[in-house]
């Protein structure tokens, strides 16, 4: 037995049926090999249970078998068979089969084998062969072969397989034949070396044998006979090639010739290995990588006089080390010059050699001052002569430039004003943030991040701290804001402050923004413009000390505060405008609009004077500009949707192209949509009914669709009228700004309105990635597009955005972590804008709706920011739940049929939900769909976890706890963190079914007691009493304010014992000011002396009327219930922990929250912010 390996344990996850079949086969082979088949059934069963593993053994224990059957190997195997075979995931196997396509570079035989293997476990039975045949035809990559197979009649699997194999083999043969052709005159390689006598050169000029030219060693040899195999390269240190075939060497010494004619040299690679000391110019290989037809007229050529009699056009290549002259040129014009013998050869693609004739030296003349002799390699090629780098430099045709100046004019702005463009600016004014009187501070906890992100975060914080933008905070602060970390595609991170709560209470100054009339006065009619962009924007304005602490944020490395004005504050844009106007506002010809500074002048002289003053002011006040974004001395500038130039002011064509390029209607439905757009502006278009008369005729019921010149003329005139309306209405920053946005399946559109008149339009098509977005994401993308397109118009202003997609309102009201990653990235793009989203029914959204469906078709690249990773708050951060429990909830959620359907509808934005055919459980979730979202594969409702049905009883038992809490308190505990539709009814049912609670339930309830005066603080007034249960005495202490309960075991009822138990309580919570107690035994002189010594007032309850100390008596009752239900002191303490963490009846706070301002951590997982 020791010589045979037993089978591996049975895996009862994933495809259980296949795992069981394989295990059973291995087990039977093992029994045969070890001759255990000859032994009794009980021994074989024991061997099976010994090898099947822990999961299999636990499964065996669940089988309902008699003692006799447990010894029968056949019946035991049958039980396993019955359990495992139904678990085969046939649907998933068929999904894999129908989605299996031939991969790029995959051979057909490998594709066919994999298909057959998957088909075997799909149980297609008689249809298996036909389905495999169909999948071959549908899944192969060769579209031409696919068409050929579809043309075949009565094709079966064997015939389809043979045709695919034949096509694959024939392609390979054709490729080899093409590579072996040697009669083309295209140059692939020029190999210059010293051939040895008798050396086998490999391929001949008119054919080739089994040898080939090896790229690894540079020699010609048979297949798999490379001498470089196993040897180390002297160039790169890697194995299996020589230096002559090293790709690294070629990459650094390569020069190319491109764009020659079809039979010419298209690309030449030079690999200089100067292993031959007698030839300093020795070139080992000259390779043509690609051969394409190209236009010679686009090449860099220069005419050179050869032999003082013939002008020849040479192609100049700065990467070439030698010069090449075609043989036909030499024979026709320069044969009188002798050739110097050379061993150079040309090798065509595929290994065929082309003859070279030697080296010739010819006198050349470029100009009267440049005359020399040039050496050429003469080759039998039909191509333009080539001039190499060294020759071109010697003849002054190429000049090396070591430095390229970025100066924008002759004065070199960057050099002259270097201090204005380098470093971080700091204005000499401090900004003080003013808050409203009713502002309530908010503290956001520090988030947890992965270790790799923490390292990058620490480095980013260090960089900001070195720039004095932020600094460490060591003192307590009332405000702690949230931050969001965005990880870019290149691995770098960006820290974004999210002061959403702070923004709600900031008092804005509402600084006056320049109007359109002021801009027109300053900019219109000017001839020379310059635009300067502020570097690092708001960070140039320092905050005063008090305001900087308002911008505190928490990180895993401690708290930091912003010393400069941060991005994201609602007041930042207008403060920035105010401070820049203070500096540059008195300069004539200068206009400041937020982070842009515009200079406009009548001529260059005036412009240069103004520009010089701006630079001096910037230097004086330490203002920094972004050098890479300067527009210097331009003839026109686009601002606020208008173009200003010498001719005056005109609208930006981009704001109107959405109307001008709107496609014509092609059916009645699109025509109705177009007329709806037109009617929206009926009050601004005179004689509109006459213009639309010919269009309305097409909408008649019996009218056929015929688009004629008459309709086309009407549409063109209407578009012109709409554009003229827009040009008549200029943007006014003082008026309310409204943006309508809408999205369709293939496009997005938006319009900016003021006083219901259009200012600008915009639309675009969706790219392939965006078409896969959900409806909610497309509508949100339309808002992002609109704000970015109209940035110069809306930045720094309050904007009302109208949308016909109501869920967007709740999206912007939620915290960012409660959204999908894509929505988080989109929301980050609009953090810098102040806007409100308003729902408008689709019937009233005719303008944006039409633009989104009649969009401008254009190529839209994927937004690189959409690949960023937003490290926002996760479940494990705001819920104190272990990761294993979260994983368990996620797994059970996937198994829950109802929750799976809910998540699917959320992903589809409930667009395919049908109320009529949906279950009641699904309808309950539909009613609260606005509060539902998915986070880490767990369904959430608001900030609560939606519990799968399989885990509900487990959570109910945890909430009921060792203290056997009642219905109200169980509801208060569970509903803080968890949710399911019938949670209240289930709690009531669970508590009522508890036998222990039913046994000790009171038969009747007492009348409510008279209320005591409310204490000023915890442990100001306490009640004490003695409880007796099971011949044990306990001292009960209850705080009147927090309802904190202490159960202290007593050895006896003496005052000495009572005082010794009270002292540890008072040492923890402080001495009370008043104690409510019974006369006996607390009215003794010893206890009175103790209270007088510590300034404690004693108040005794009425004799024979314990209700006057109602809270203490209630504490005794609660304590006795806890003691009765517990077996020992440890269980009593655990029950006290549950009681102290449970909200007090009638309040939302537990005793621990009232006493210590936090919840205690118990076995029931809760939100971290409550701890």
TrEMBL record:
The keyword Nucleotidyltransferase applies. This is RNA-directed DNA polymerase. Pfam families: Integrase_H2C2 (PF17921), RT_RNaseH (PF17917), RVT_1 (PF00078). It is an enzyme of class 2 (transferase). The keyword Plastid does not apply. Residues 312-351 form the Peptidase A2 domain. PROSITE patterns: ASP_PROT_RETROV, INTEGRASE, RT_POL. GO terms for cellular component: DNA polymerase complex. One of its GO terms (biological process) is proteolysis. Residues 1014-1171 form the Integrase catalytic domain. It comes from Photinus pyralis.
């Amino acid at each position: 037995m020791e010589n045979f390996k037993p089978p591996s344990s049975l895996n009862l996850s994933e495809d259980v049926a296949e795992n069981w079949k394989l295990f059973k086969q291995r087990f039977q082979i093992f029994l045969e090999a070890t001759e255990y088949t000859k032994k009794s059934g009980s021994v074989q069963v024991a061997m099976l249970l010994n090898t099947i593993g822990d999961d299999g053994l636990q499964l065996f224990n669940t089988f309902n078998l008699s003692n006799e059957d447990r010894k029968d190997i056949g019946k035991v195997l049958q039980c396993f068979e019955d359990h495992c075979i139904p678990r085969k995931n046939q649907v998933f196997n068929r999904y894999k089969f129908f989605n299996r396509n031939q991969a790029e570079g995959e051979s057909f035989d490998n594709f066919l084998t994999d298909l057959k293997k998957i088909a075997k476990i799909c149980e297609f039975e008689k249809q298996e062969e036909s389905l495999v045949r169909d999948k071959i035809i549908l899944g192969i990559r060769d579209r031409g072969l696919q068409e050929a197979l579809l043309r075949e009649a009565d094709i079966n699997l064997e015939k389809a397989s043979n045709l695919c194999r034949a096509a694959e083999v024939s392609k390979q043969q054709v490729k080899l034949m093409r590579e072996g052709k040697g009669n083309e005159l295209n140059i692939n390689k020029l190999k210059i070396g010293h051939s040895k006598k008798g050396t086998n050169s490999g391929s001949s000029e008119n054919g080739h044998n089994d040898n080939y030219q090896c790229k690894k060693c540079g020699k010609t040899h048979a297949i798999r006979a490379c001498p470089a195999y196993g040897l180390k390269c002297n160039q790169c240190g890697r194995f299996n090639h020589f230096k002559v075939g090293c790709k690294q060497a070629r990459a650094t010494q390569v020069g190319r010739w491109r764009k020659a004619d079809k039979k010419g040299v298209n690309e030449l690679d030079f690999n200089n290995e100067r292993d031959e000391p007698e030839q300093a110019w020795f070139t080992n290989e000259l390779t043509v990588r690609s051969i394409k037809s190209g236009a010679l007229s686009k090449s860099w050529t220069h005419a050179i006089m050869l032999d003082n009699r013939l002008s020849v056009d040479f192609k100049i290549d700065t990467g070439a080390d030698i010069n090449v002259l075609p043989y036909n040129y030499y024979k026709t014009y320069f044969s009188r010059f002798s050739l110097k013998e050379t061993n150079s050869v040309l090798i065509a693609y595929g290994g065929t050699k082309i003859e070279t004739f030697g080296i010739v030296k010819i006198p050349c003349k470029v100009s009267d001052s440049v005359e020399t002799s040039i050496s050429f390699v003469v080759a039998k090629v039909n191509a333009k002569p080539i001039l190499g780098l060294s020759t071109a430099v010697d003849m002054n045709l190429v000049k090396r430039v070591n430095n390229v100046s970025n100066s924008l004019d002759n004065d070199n702005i960057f050099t002259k004003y270097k201090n204005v463009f380098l470093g971080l600016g700091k204005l000499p004014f401090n900004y003080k943030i003013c808050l409203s009187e009713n502002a309530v501070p908010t503290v956001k906890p520090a988030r947890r991040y992965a270790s790799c992100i923490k390292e990058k975060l620490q480095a980013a914080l260090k960089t900001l701290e070195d720039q004095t933008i932020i600094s460490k905070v060591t003192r307590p602060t009332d405000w702690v804001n949230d931050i969001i970390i965005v990880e870019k595609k290149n691995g770098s991170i960006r820290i974004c402050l999210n002061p959403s709560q702070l923004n709600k209470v900031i008092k804005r100054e509402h600084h006056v923004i320049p109007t359109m009339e002021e801009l027109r006065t300053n900019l219109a009619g000017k001839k020379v413009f310059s635009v300067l962009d502020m570097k690092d924007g708001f960070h140039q304005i320092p905050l005063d000390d008090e305001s900087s602490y308002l911008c505190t944020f928490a990180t895993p490395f401690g708290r930091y505060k912003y010393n400069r004005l941060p991005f994201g504050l609602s007041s930042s844009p207008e403060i920035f405008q105010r401070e820049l106007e203070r500096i540059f506002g008195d300069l004539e010809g200068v206009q400041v609009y937020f982070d842009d500074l515009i200079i406009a002048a009548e001529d260059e002289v005036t412009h240069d004077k103004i520009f010089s003053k701006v630079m001096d002011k910037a230097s004086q006040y330490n203002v920094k500009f972004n050098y890479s974004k300067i527009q210097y001395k331009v003839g026109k500038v686009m601002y606020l949707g208008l173009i200003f130039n010498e001719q005056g002011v005109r609208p930006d064509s981009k704001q109107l192209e959405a109307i001008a390029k709107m496609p014509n209607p092609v059916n009645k439905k699109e025509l109705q949509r177009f007329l709806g757009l037109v009617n929206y502006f009926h009050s601004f278009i005179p004689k509109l009914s006459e213009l639309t008369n010919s269009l309305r005729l097409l909408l008649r019921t019996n009218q056929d669709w015929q688009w004629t010149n008459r309709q086309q003329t009407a549409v063109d005139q209407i578009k012109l009228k709409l554009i003229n309306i827009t040009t008549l209405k200029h943007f006014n920053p003082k008026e309310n700004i409204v943006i309508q946005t809408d999205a369709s399946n293939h496009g997005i559109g938006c319009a900016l309105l003021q006083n219901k008149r259009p200012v600008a339009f915009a639309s675009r098509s969706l790219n392939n990635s965006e078409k896969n977005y959900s409806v909610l994401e497309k509508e949100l993308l339309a808002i992002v597009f609109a704000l970015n397109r109209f940035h110069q118009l809306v930045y720094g202003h309050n904007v009302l955005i109208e949308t016909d997609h109501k869920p967007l309102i709740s999206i912007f009201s939620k915290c960012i972590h409660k959204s999908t990653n894509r929505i988080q990235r989109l929301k980050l793009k609009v953090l810098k804008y102040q806007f409100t989203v308003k729902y408008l029914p689709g019937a009233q959204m005719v303008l944006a709706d039409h633009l989104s469906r009649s969009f401008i078709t254009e190529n839209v690249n994927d937004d690189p920011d959409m690949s960023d990773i937003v490290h926002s708050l996760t479940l494990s951060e705001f819920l104190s739940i272990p990761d294993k429990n979260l994983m368990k909830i996620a797994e059970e959620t996937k198994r829950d049929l109802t929750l799976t359907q809910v998540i699917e509808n959320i992903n589809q934005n409930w667009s395919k939900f049908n109320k009529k055919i949906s279950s009641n459980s699904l309808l309950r979730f539909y009613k609260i769909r606005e509060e539902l979202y998915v986070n880490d594969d767990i369904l959430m409702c608001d900030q609560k976890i939606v519990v799968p049905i399989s885990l509900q009883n487990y959570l109910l038992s945890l909430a009921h706890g060792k203290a056997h809490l009642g219905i109200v308190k169980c509801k208060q505990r569970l509903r803080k963190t968890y949710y399911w539709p019938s949670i209240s009814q289930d709690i009531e049912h669970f508590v009522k079914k508890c036998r222990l609670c039913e046994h000790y339930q009171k038969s009747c309830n007492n009348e409510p007691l008279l209320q005591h005066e409310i204490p000023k603080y915890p442990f100001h007034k306490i009640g004490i009493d003695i409880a007796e249960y099971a011949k044990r005495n306990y001292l009960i202490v209850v705080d009147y304010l927090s309802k904190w309960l202490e159960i202290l075991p007593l050895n006896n009822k003496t005052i000495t014992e009572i005082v010794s138990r009270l002292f540890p309580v008072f040492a923890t919570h402080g001495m009370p000011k008043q104690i409510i107690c019974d006369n006996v035994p607390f009215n003794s002189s010893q206890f009175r002396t103790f209270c007088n010594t510590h300034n404690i007032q004693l108040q005794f309850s009425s004799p024979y009327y314990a209700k006057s100390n109602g809270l203490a008596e209630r504490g005794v009752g609660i304590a006795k219930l806890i003691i009765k239900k517990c077996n020992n002191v440890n269980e009593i303490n655990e029950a006290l922990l549950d009681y102290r963490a449970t909200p007090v009846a009638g309040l939302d706070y537990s005793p621990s929250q009232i006493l210590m301002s936090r919840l205690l951590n118990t076995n029931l997982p809760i939100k971290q912010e409550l701890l």
